[in-house]
Amino acid sequence: MTEQTTISFVVRGPIARPDLPGLCDRLHDRIAEHHAVCVVCDISGLAADAITVDALARLRLTACRCGCALSVEGWSEELRNLIAFVGLRDVLL
Length: 93
Description:
Elements: E1 5-10, H1 20-34, E2 36-42, H2 50-65, E3 69-73, H3 77-85, H4 89-92
Parallel strand pairs: 1-2, 2-3
Helix pairs in contact: 1-2
């Protein structure tokens, strides 16, 4: 039986749009390195802006492509509201 591994992944800001591909590459490498089935992503302190929403969508997609679940910690109320406003509540929250 294979051990089910959960890893932590911390995203610190500020982040800029050019940072996003590298951020996803880093997540992919961590998942592969640890054979993770779940990632707990800490986003506390990130700005509630479009770049953060884009980053979260890309990180979720990266995890999904690796066959890994992604849960997020550290949501601000402003970020939750922005995600709901842009119609991604069901995808990201």
